[in-house]
Amino acid sequence: xATRTTKLTTFAWLGDAFEPCGLxxxxxxxxxxxxxxxxxxxRYLQRQNRIEVDPVSLGLTRLDRVEGNALFPANRLPFFGGxxxxxxxxxxxxxxxxxxxxxxxxxxxxxxxxxxxGNRVGALDIRRxxxxxxxxxxxxxxxxxxxxxxxxxxxxGEEVPARLEAIFTEGTAxxxxxxxxxxxxxxxxxQLAKFRSRTDRFDMPKVEMAALRLAVECxxxxxxxxxxxxxxxxxxxxxxxxxxxxxxxTTPLPREWMLTQPGDGLLERRIPFISALTLVGCSEEExxxxxxxxxxxxxxxxxxxxxxxxxxxxxxxxMVFNIFVTNDxxxxxxxxxxxxxxxxxxxxxxxxxxMPRPGVAQERQLHLxxxxxxxxxxxxxxxxxxxxxGLSEAQAIARFAAIWSKVREWKVFFEEYGVAGADIxxxxxxxxxxxxxxxxxxxxKIQAQP
Length: 450
What we know:
Structural class: alpha+beta
Keywords: Kinase, Transferase
EC number: 2.7.11.1
Distance between the termini: 66 Å
CATH topology of the domain at 271-448: Phosphatidylinositol 3-kinase Catalytic Subunit, Chain A, Domain 5
Pfam family, one: HipA_C
Strand order of the largest sheet: 3-2-1-4
Helix content: 25-40%
Strand content: 15-25%
Shape: globular
InterPro entries: HipA-like_C, HipA_Ser/Thr_kinase
Organism: Silvimonas terrae
Number of strands: 13
Radius of gyration: 22 Å
């Protein structure tokens, strides 16, 4: 099959509107992306409020290397990470395929990019040309029941009838494998609705909600999250942390941006987002070969200096929490970074996509490497890498103790959050006792913490 070249216009949200950012050129062979290049627009580079699409491959710290030049992905990758993050992942692709009545994974990347729409994650939009309008399309009148029914049909490989076609707008821009859609709540804020699959062995939306709230108890940064019942099935609703409301387009990102709501004179702003897959500069296939230390190195290299120590400490805490709850879906796309316009730099995003995985094995692994013993999910292994996160052994052990003091009460918290007894029993084996994941000597040190 002959290759073809597709040129697409990239837009970036600056202040209160999308502005043309640059020209993306994709070389595709059927549904395989072979290569890509990008050129920033000269007028865009002259703007004081410009943002970089991707700090690794499309950074703007050296304009003399960018202006007027064709740029290519780092590490000989076929795609720019920052633009890949604006493209739909597994679920969003299934929605697009259903809309276009196409077989699974049969469409070229350019089609997925164009069909994702204007409510994709972050602050980018991809269109055919300068004159193509965006389509935001989130209809607050569409009920969760309709979206859930449409998601059920897509998951089952069935055709979506006309009355349920709102899913083709609300669900196309999203990543992850589980059924979901973007909605606006009663206050007008964007939320991600994650539905229960009919094949789930337990109430996964409610368990994920409870796990995220438990992470808050452990001192981690998490968006507001809750659950509602729709037709006897749980739907998890989590705040879209890549949006906030403010009066002025030049207002720096508020400290409590995830709590802002619509009001008189306030407009919705978009926050640039990239995944750790982009920050580390690798492909999806290489993700399993990477570690939390690789993310930490990316933090040191690309994150704003004022945030490095804080973000490294938070990242270490997330790794430890994942060990305690057996969240082994901790791949690089499930760690993110946002651009803080007040700092004029990148920082770690709030935590998302945490799902305890029940298991019977005593020895368990995370997706990413933890320490000197590779992916082994133990606190001793985490301790071996603490220096990569800027922590002393004493500080790391204190963090173990703080997180364990909350995780050990996980059943109490889950009951408070409304998780049913049967679901608590179903996920019980995911939660590790400190004695199961730490050597006797380390357990003694953890228990000695005040």
